[in-house]
Amino acid sequence: MQVRRPSPDRGSVQARGVVVIGGGIGGLVSAALLAAKGCDVTLIEAAAGPGGKLRTVISGGAAIDGGPTVFTLRRVFEDVFAACGADLADHVTMQPATTLARHAWGDARLDLFADPARSEAAIGDFAGPAEARGYRAFRAESQRLFEALDRPFLHGSKTNPLTLGWRMGARGLPDFVNLRPFTTMARALGGYFKDPRLRQLFGRYATYCGSSPFQCPATLMLVAHAEASGVWLIDGGMHRLALALEALGRSQGVRFRYNAPVREIVVERGRAAGVVLASGERIAAGSVVCNADAAALGAGHLGEAARRAASPVPARRRSLSAMVWTASARTSGFPLTRHNVFFSDDYAAEFAALAAGRLADAPSVYICAQDRDSAGAAPGGAERIQIIVNAPAIGDGAGFSAAEIAACQRQMLDTVARSGLSLDLEPGAVLTTPSEFAGLFPATGGALYGAASHGWAASFQRQGSRTRIPGLYCAGGSTHPGAGVPMAALSGRLAAHCLLQDQAAQRPAQWRIGNLPRPANLEPAK
Fold first, then answer.
1. 3 state DSSP class of 441
2. Which of 13, 168, 187, 344 suits a disulfide with 172, CB 3.0-4.6 Å?
3. Are 259 and 292 in the same domain?
4. H or E stretch including 94?
5. How do residues 238-293 score in pLDDT, each as one tens digit?
6. Which residues in 391-400 are b (16+ Cβ under 10 Å) and which e?
7. For residue 496, what are the domain limits?
8. By 3-state DSSP, what share of the chain in percent is helix, strand and coil, each rounded to 5?
9. Does 64 reside within a domain?
10. How far is residue 458's CA from residue 482's CA, in Å, rounded to a whole number?
11. 386-408 pLDDT, tens per residue?
């Protein structure tokens, strides 16, 4: 399918083009979609290549995924490629994971599977038939929450509780009044599982958006359905997705400028008018899409004129950061699969320490064994792994001392050793701390998911696609609809839709995004 681009009207705002700041998933998606609709798009990125948090780290001569490792909601990306007249399968090869993740508590072990019947049977064998029935009920509730919010919230522009109810309509009223925003996830899980290990396992889904299960609303149980709907293993690692989106953008005419940090967003006559690079070069534009963390706008990191575009994020509202090891390693003693979680004995104590700005004394540990398939087939010799331990987002302060970092590594190794895993990290292992993440993503303190989803109103307080400055839009995991790879892609799509919708006030209806499902609007459901 060939994309026919409308000829720009040289007297229009659009004719001056669009600048996208940042080559993360949200920026890459918005750039490709805008270019597919005929916009003249330049994407500017401070790093040497695309991806943002979806990055690779060179460790011991090997390229290892250093960011997100779980790919879900494939349909979101299929829609983006289709809107550009392309097919995701022509750009990225992937296989469905049969084993979603392996979980361990010392000698105890539990796998979850793509087949829910296998997961239910495994839980029954692990903790008894009552817990298997609890899982069945939990799975149904997670699906209900996801399906209730998918169209009106996840695919729709930023809203408030009243408008969300309006979007859901009369048929959605039962779901609207049962979104469970005032119950914490930890408390809600107690209604499904008596076994504390299962409450811990399913409470971990809160960390997918950098939050605590003891503080986030039970509504976020919907994350479990996104994973249960399918996890895909991308050949070559997750960074291949960023490269595919870059190639998609180039095919639509997007120009990419790397190693080009932005000093400020230019605001003239009350609206965004371009950017100034750190080099002093000025690039004029009719509109700007900011794929930096929204906190950077409110903190003035993109210029004083743009500061009023978004509210600053107080340190107390930040999501989690992490201690992330990327390494080639020799492993033995535990049958790793692609995704593995080794749990601490006391989840409440772990999150209490993080809330207090400390590393946990006995942390839970996630390991992505990048060279393994979901059956766990091991490569010969050393293998590429990413190790994550949750950390507080205090990277813009003094950071952790060498002694604290060394203690954290010992405790990480102790946690996995309790389950029999021996990890021998080879020379060249790279540790990224909250301080390094704070340097990569200014004004965040190293927070990797924007603001934490704590409290019933948190999801409504995220920065939306539009800002307080006309012509300036936001995309990325810190903006609506939330954190995670597919949510960042949806944010990029929403930013493109809002930009084109605003231009449509001056131009014909040809500027609506073609074959993407239209984002939910403010009209009640019919």
1. coil
2. 168
3. yes
4. strand 94-96
5. 999 999 999 999 999 999 999 999 999 999 999 999 999 999 999 999 999 999 99
6. bbbbbbeeeb
7. 14-55+70-94+237-315+451-511
8. 35, 20, 45
9. no
10. 10
11. 999 999 999 999 999 999 999 99
Q: Name the CA radius of gyration of the chain, rounded.
A: 22
Distance between CA atoms of 207 and 447, rounded to whole angstroms?
12
- The region, left, alpha or beta by phi > 0 then psi within -120 to 50, assigned to residue 152 is alpha
Query: What are the structure tokens assigned to 288, written together?
Result: 């700007």
Structure tokens at 310: 């978004």
Cα dihedral 514, 515, 520, 525 sign: positive
User: What is the token pair recorded at 139?
Assistant: 């799975």
Count of domains forming the chain: 3
**For residue 152, which amino acid is it?**
P
Q: Beta 18-21 vs 41-44: how paired, if at all?
A: parallel
CA atoms of 367 and 273, how far apart (whole Å): 44
Q: Which amino acid is at 81?
A: F
Query: Domain boundary at 208, 229, 250, which?
Result: 229
The two beta strands, 287-290 and 282-284, are: unpaired
CA geometry: angle 342, 408, 374, nearest 5 deg: 30
**Residue 368 belongs to a domain:** yes
Q: Reduce the DSSP state of residue 6 to 3 states and report it.
A: coil
The 10 Å Cβ neighbour count of residue 258 is 13
Q: Rounded to an integer, what distance in angstroms lies between the CA atom of residue 157 and that of residue 481? A: 8
